[in-house]
Design goal:
Blueprint (H helix, E strand, L loop, with lengths): L10 E2 L5 E4 L5 E3 L6 E3 L14 H5 L4 E2 L9 E5 L5 E5 L2 E2 L17 H4 L1 E3 L3
Antiparallel strand pairs: 1-2, 2-3, 4-9, 5-7, 6-7, 7-8
């Protein structure tokens, strides 16, 4: 059972979406799907290196043009012009093989290059 704590660290996105922290400190979206970062992305660069086929397997956490950054959260512009949320400068992604809320199948995937995000 996934328990999501409600706390001040909750960040609102577009369309009623939010990022929240689970009881064990992992960041998830409102739908309780786990969020990941990629070692190929350089923190603070404002860029995602996961595009094309990579973004099919690791869909970015997209936000709309009305979303704003807050604290450790920022917004980057992707190569396709869409906006993506980042945490501590690292773009945030879902994993396509996480089918149910709370799954963490992408942690340490592809030779340890993908990681769940902990606060």
């Amino acid at each position: 059972m996934l328990v999501v704590s409600s706390l001040a660290a909750c960040v609102s996105l577009s369309g009623g979406q939010s990022i929240v922290k689970t009881e064990d400190g992992v960041l998830v979206s409102t739908n309780n799907m786990t969020l990941y970062t990629f070692d190929g992305d350089q923190a603070g660069s404002g860029k995602s290196t996961c595009n094309g086929g990579c973004a099919i397997n690791w869909p970015p956490l997209l936000v709309d043009v009305n979303s704003t950054s807050y604290g450790s959260y920022s917004i980057i512009k992707r190569d396709d012009g869409k906006q993506q949320f980042a945490y501590k400068g690292k773009p945030l992604y879902y994993y396509s093989l996480d089918k149910k809320p709370g799954e963490r199948n992408g942690d340490n995937a592809l030779n340890g290059a993908w990681h769940i995000v902990r606060m």
